[in-house]
Design brief:
By secondary structure, this protein is an alpha/beta fold. The protein has one domain: 4-Layer Sandwich (Purple Acid Phosphatase, chain A, domain 2). 22% of the residues lie in helices and 23% in strands. It has 6 helices and 14 strands. The chain has a 7-stranded mixed beta sheet, covered by helices on one side. α2 links the parallel β5 and β6. α2 crosses α3. The chain is globular and about 50 Å long. The mean pLDDT is 95.
């Protein structure tokens, strides 16, 4: 698991942005269920630059591409690097892992999966099962996670992966969760320094405590899934992103930001994609 140094400001707080589920195409004009994903992604980036909150690192938590194309990853890299911040990524179920790594690395976005700072470490996991929508953490991923936690028991930990660990209440979407969640949660229970788990995948906001650990999911930068739905259904909520502050004492503060309502409206009659 490649490691890099996690920097923080003089106050010791690590400030993060989570961008997730951009679903970009090779053709920047294409839309996903009524939303042009390149346009909504750019609108999110533009909104981020207008906010007063400082941030140190961008976390991209999967499904960056919708069509497995080199050009879609080039589009992501070209746009996100304009923020002039370190970017770290992990794959989602729609991504092509090898192509993703190659194209992002060419653009200077390197595949470090662990960020270690003075008070925190952030560990990015690969839960992709290629060709299927659900997630699974391999034995190697779990082994590397435990080794990282054992190495720095004194540092608070934020764990990132694409798939959600616990059901969010949408029957169709909860079929596509992390299938070995019990193994994952059992491992985390052995390490009290783990403060939070951060995911994408579900295209909606979720924030719950389980056994002392905060589990968070975040909006997509394009389409949003309707909460608590039995069948596939889109929401009218706007594209968004998450802002996080990691404090030296282990506290975590976070806020979801969204674009102005009505700026991007999906085809609400859609029954899947």
């Amino acid at each position: 698991m490649e490691t890099c140094t996690l920097s923080n400001t003089n106050d010791g707080i690590v400030r993060l942005l989570q961008i997730s589920d951009t679903h970009l195409f090779a053709d920047a004009g294409r839309d996903l269920l009524g939303i042009a994903t390149a346009d909504s992604f750019q609108a999110v980036l533009d909104a981020i630059t207008e906010l007063p909150q400082p941030y140190d690192v961008v976390l991209a938590t999967g499904d960056l591409s919708q069509d497995h194309s080199a050009a879609s990853y080039q589009c992501f890299a070209r746009r996100v690097t304009a923020l002039n911040k370190p970017v770290h990524w992990l794959p989602g179920n729609h991504d092509h892992r090898v192509l993703m790594q190659n194209e992002l690395q060419v653009a200077g976005i390197h595949p470090e999966m662990r960020l270690v700072g003075d008070h925190w470490q952030i560990i990015l996991l690969d839960s992709q099962v290629y060709g299927t929508p659900h997630g699974w953490l391999s034995h190697l991923q779990l082994e590397q996670l435990e080794a990282a936690l054992l190495q720095y028991p004194e540092k608070h930990a934020l764990i990132c992966l694409h798939h959600h660990t616990f059901p969010i209440g949408s029957i169709w979407l909860d079929q596509h969760d992390l299938k070995n969640a019990n193994d994952f949660v059992t491992l985390l229970s052995r390490h009290p320094q783990v403060k939070a788990v951060l995911c994408g995948h579900v295209h909606q906001e979720y924030d719950q405590m389980h056994q002392g650990i905060r589990f968070l999911t975040s909006p997509s930068t394009c389409i949003q899934f309707k909460p608590l739905s039995v069948d596939f259904s889109l929401d009218t909520m706007s594209p968004g992103w998450r802002y996080l502050q990691l404090y030296p004492d282990g506290r975590l503060a976070t806020q979801v930001w969204r674009l102005d309502p009505g700026q991007f409206v999906p085809d609400l009659k859609s029954t899947g994609y």
